[in-house]
Amino acid sequence: MVLSIIAVQPALADDVLCDAEQLPDLVSGFFQITTTLGIIGLVVVWQADSLMEMFTASPDQKRSLKQHKRSALKSAVILLVLGPLYTVAASIMGLPLGDCINLVPW
Q: Model pTM?
């Protein structure tokens, strides 16, 4: 009896998470909003750094600005790759939200 409850419980949890009225849409929407804000942030940082590079005379400051632009670009790439990677990995590993939540931002 106890073994059947323990064995059935994870399957019930999967159904509850996917059948929750707004949970999958809420998580997908949150991921899309944060991805969009991350891309907008990248554009703002990139443009601001490019503008500051035009008015900077010191080679050290220019190098620092280029490094900042590279780190902003890396962050945006991670943000764009993380959602689809989780979606694929969750489906393969059979994670509860892998089948009912789409984290692909486009």
A: 0.69
